[in-house]
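[Meeting: bench + compute handoff]

Bench side (C.D.) handed over the final construct sequence. Compute side (W.E.) agreed to return the predicted structure before the next meeting so the bench team could plan truncations. Sequence as handed over:
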Amino acid sequence: MHWKEEGYIAPPARFIGQANAADPDIFQRFAEERFPECFKEYADLLDWDAYWHTTLDTSDPPFWKWFVGGRLNACHNCVDRHLATQRNKAALIWVPEPESEATLAITYQELHKRVNEFAALLRDFCELKAGDRVTFHLPMVPELPVSMLACARLGVIHSEVFGGFSGTACGDRIADSGSRVLVTMDGYFRNGELADHKVKADEAVDAAAKLGADVDKVLVWRRRPGAYASQSPMVDGRDFFVDDLLQTYRGKQVEPVSMPADAPLFLMYTSGTTARPKGCQHSTGGYLAYVTGTSKYYQDIHPDDTYWCMADIGWITGHSYIVYGPLALGTTSVIYEGVPTYPDPGRPWRIAERLGVNIFHTAPTAIRLLRKLGPDEPRKYGYRFKHMTTVGEPIEPDVWRWYHDVVGKGEAVVVDTWWQTETGGFLGSTLPALQPMKPGSCGPGVLGVYPVIYDEDRNVVEAGSGNAGNICIRNPWPGIFQTIWGQPERFVDLYYRKYCADPDSKDWHDWPYLAGDGAMLADDGYFRILGRVDDVINVAGHRLGTKELESAAITVEEVAEAAAVPVLDELRGRAVEMYISLKPGITGGDDIRGKVIAAIETQIGKIARPQNVWIVSDMPKTRSGKIMRRVIASISNFADVGDTTTLSNPEIVDDIRHQVQSEKLARGEAPRPLTPEEEAEIKAFGRTE
């Protein structure tokens, strides 16, 4: 692989002078010879009810246990402990999408009150106790962190489903987690419209019931007091308005339940290479310590900062770096309900100026969109960022430069982070005051994390070799998820089996973590992430499993086979294209395409809507009957299809190429020339089969 190595950009002196991590000695404190005890520094940022006796328990690899014997409560650490010194400071500032609505500031004292009341409701009305699961299907409203923290206070495991996902997708996750309670909202604003969200709750309950899971109670928060935003009727005996129920629990206090450090805190579902989502189970002590430590050192969060992560709490970024990390540090965290370009692309910068935001955190997709629609908008506003993060997918160097020069006004450091749902927090990043920025590279491994790149035979791909491979982490770290909920064998198979040196070993050195991303390592120790090496398509930072997409498509009666592939997209990074073949004797066009799109939107959500649905006479297949997705992915991206002589039907390739590429050219959809990294990604697609 070849790419242009960008030059270094040093952090401003003003930033270095105030940074939490400005002493180079920190690298020695987290050196490998001090592992795992180095992470005591993160854990000591928290209040513990009982101190741990073992920092890292490796007795049952790869099911690592951190801070064993320790006890704590996550809600206490995010709320209660700040009351003595900053009860009247804003913990959360919620910005509704309609600019005519007032911004809501929730102090730590008010947050404490709201969390206690809802915790009392969950405990007494829903009869929930530590270890039970609750599913949330909530948008970006303050009721979401309130609900999360109420569960954490009780030791109840929460599972938030991204609000943009369909009711069916929510129901699948309810059934997988064994939740008996669903917490949702009647509606929320999106692009200026009040969306009916409660209707998805009915779909979710029905979908869960088909999988044998019964939901006892549906708790409905109301977006506007005294008004119901949904056309879906409330089901008597099942559905309850939270604001009505809370009248009974006004002023109630609930003592935080002291939980073992290795007790599960939450489940976060992510896509995999099968249709069944993976419920990533995150711990209480290890996870909270890790997101608190990385928030302090890599986000450079101080208690007096106003911090805005413009992500959705429905994804791991929002859990770690909107709720748990920032609140554990006692800072002010901004939550925005809507889309960043409504009513115009100046909206984020107006919010930042008005609220005095000085740390900003968003994804490359949002950056690309804001650059396209309002390239000069940031210059119109008087905000000043000291620090900016990018997260969710690799960011192109030219987009990075606009982010740094225009959004950051050349005054802010940029932290380009690489990590995953499974990892809990950052894995690759520059430490902003001590390591220079380099566009196109996330940087080295973060403190206490030791990455390596392996080839397929577990040989190390050396720095500066120009070769790509599988990026792995050689050691456990506190933020790593504990297992896949209910699927421990799958956990081992997906993340550890490939490079495990000795399945009988209890030495962590023999159990490197396989991230599933391709990467290269430059001479300077900075990594460049090349994207997924499995059949997961990263659309605007949202991971969509091909099997989920294909399973939805073949629910359409006329469809015989379906294949999902990624296509380059200027704004979203990658988009989905579906190829379908029809059952014998079936003909159709736009009507069937419409059914496929509707099925995907219904079962997964609008985020998964395919850019194109191609109806083909047959799929390119191996002699064993497997669809060669790399071939059709190459066709969609105008790339070389490679060797097709091993196909059972090589003649079909030219037919599909002519059909798809001629129609794309007629629409003006021909992509720009692919970079070598993009060509490699397309050629690798489908290798997991």
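W.E. noted at the follow-up: The chain has a mean pLDDT of 93. C.D. will use this when planning the next construct.
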